Amino acid sequence: MIYINPKVVKALANNQPVVALESTIISHGMPYPQNVKTALEVERVIEENGAIAATIGIIDGVGIIGMSADQIEAFGSRGGIDKVSRRDLPMIIANKKWGATTVATTMILAAKAGIEVFVTGGVGGVHRKAETTFDISADLQELAHTNVTVICAGAKAILDLPLTLQYLETFGVPVLGYQSENLAAFYSRDSGLKLDGRVESAEEIAKIVKAKRDFGLDGGILISNPIPIEYAMESAEINKAIDEALIEMENLNIKGKEVTPFLLAKIKDVTEGKSLASNIELVKNNARVGAQVAFELCRLKGEHHV
Questions:
Q1: Helix 259-270 × helix 235-252 angle, to 10°
Q2: Mind listing the pLDDT tens digit for each residue in 77-111?
Q3: Domains of the chain, earliest start first
């Protein structure tokens, strides 16, 4: 059912830092070949910051924890890969299909491998008009129950951010701002929404994660890490693009798991590629912080082996 790359097995056995990465961003988040280039660059950022990168995807029904460069290339260039959340896993595994792991599924597979830290762009959440559609990402329930710390640039800006925060609060998920008191808004740095707490360093995050695990509290921790200011977009500009994309999505009657890929692609077109450039940079920024957090966790657990 799962295959763990030997370099990941060795790192975990030797208390070396490992950072999980998702594969939906490769197959559904960006066009080829930019998707492959970005995935490999993000892995390199993690490794330059002292950790082992473990990109996770499903190939022929097997969850691969630590995809090779050739596997990432195949993943990025291959069409028709299913986007896989928790509910889809049994079918994908049983039918030996290829699957791109969402935040939820990446958390599941990372936890099975014993990886605590996972880096993504933005998490899913409560969609706009969810009070009538009940469209709420499975990512939020995974954060409530699965023991993985997620470093992100907040929730995706296409979502209802106040309701997303309320949902996470209801299910007991700590949401902490990295050097910020407010939730990051993916393409822009600040949603204006106050968070549970502010953390100043990777060491502080690691101490909170360790305390949660030592106390036996199941569930994840969400770290909101704002996009670097030089790559951030103006809120007015990105909100205008989102509104345009939402109107077209409704006109085309796009629903379910197709919503997020459609909106991200449409926003990229409306902003003439600026949103994609911002997306790439915020993931790299999250990778730097994630590697530092993983390193500090290993240091707290015991002697760090180089």
A1: 130
A2: 998 899 999 999 999 999 999 999 999 999 999 99
A3: 2-301 (3.40.1790.10)
